[in-house]
Amino acid sequence: MSKLSKDKRNQLVLAIALTLAVVVGLYFLLIRGQLDRLHGIVAEKQKKATSVQTIEDTKNKREQIEAELGVVSRVLQEKEQDMASGDLYSTMITMITAFKQPYNVDIPQFTAGSQSDVNLLPKFPYKQYTLTIAGTAFYSDLGQFVAGFENRFPSSRILNLELSPAPSQSPEDKEKLQFKMDIVALVKAASQLAK
Question: N or C, which end of the chain has less CB nearby within 10 Å?
Fold first, then answer.
């Protein structure tokens, strides 16, 4: 059996080659397509499992998110308590007069302001009220007043600060400054006041 005739050997090689060609053909025509489809199904299953897991995680975090929303809502309400409302001019004068008591700042002049939309951010839910004040103070006292005011009232800003030497009436007041500044305060919109 070790010796096959040349024709038999050629037929055997041809049969093996044809068998290999049929097996390779079957793999590429049938099996490979099925494997690709199976890999696609596995990938889609994994994608949907990830999506379901994300939904489950969100559902499980619902209470935590609601608690965080409650905390943020309370903080917002506390911040809104410092906002001017009602008669804005008298509210601002009362607020500034009460605040300036511990500071050595004289503010005799309040100029009626105007209410407008906030011009810094579009579609901002609050209005802004601008009030101009003028007075005299020493430089360090005025600096402490400005810093204290902006720290105490985070919903208000001091803008357009103008400084000039104050007309001195006594030698100890010769270093006093005359100042003029705009105080811009956020005002609750009418929809927030109704809540």
Answer: N
